[in-house]
Input
Amino acid sequence: MKTWIWQGQKITYTTQGDSGSAIILIHGFGANLGHWRKNIPELALNQRVFALDLLGFGGSAKPQDGLYTFETWGQQVADFLREIVQTPTIIVGNSIGSIVALQAAIYCPQLTQGVTLINCSLRLLHQSKRQQIPWLRRESAPLLQKFLSVPAIGQFFFNQIRQPKTIRKILLQAYAQPAAVSDELIDLLIAPSFDPGAWGVFLSFINYDIGPLAEDLLPLVTCPVQILWGELDPWEPIDLGRDYQKFPCVREFIPIANAGHCPQDEVPEVVNPLLSGWAQRCSQANSPVTH
Output
């Protein structure tokens, strides 16, 4: 594990591989770079692979006054490309990491050869989308946010969420491959939740219902985009994700059979070749999309 100081804050990252094009892996909410443990060694056979913990997650700093937004995380990744990677890169993100990947590609187009979105977060609780969801969920979400903002209540809820049995139950909902919900996975997700400041990150994000959507960012991206989507994702329905194919920058939309929200962890034997092949094609083409 390596450390990079960004805007005065400790950021943890790892790297593997010493030849080929560069690829950086961005985790989703509540996860960390360990979520890519099944992908990094395989990808590193042909690429220089980087994975980092976003501010507020994993081993990275969790400042109480941190601004946990996609703009912040996008700037973090863009600066990482400039300061650490320093070569044209493929940015890969899972879930909310997909939004971060798009934001970073916009902030640092000169070092972004391509982007891969894996089960991109649709952000269905975003203020602009609430009218599209069922009435009960639409009305209850703001009440729940306000309820959890009470420190005693929110901390109690957070303590329950980070229990192994709770994490396992959540993962079994999100994963289509129960065997992938291992003790190792649960341990690596839970450990950072005991760091000072972790509760504040959780509270900040559950109240975050503004900011950019994928459909806001895709028109601004000037590199090719690949989209991978687990067909059985209960959180981010693939039928809604297919709408992203209308954007000119999207070159591939590939459904992943027998996978849920995190296909890179559920079926890495399927996802790794897709990522590696995409990275090689983008590196060879190296041509921006024109609008």
Observations:
- Residues 63 and 197 are 6 Å apart (CA to CA).
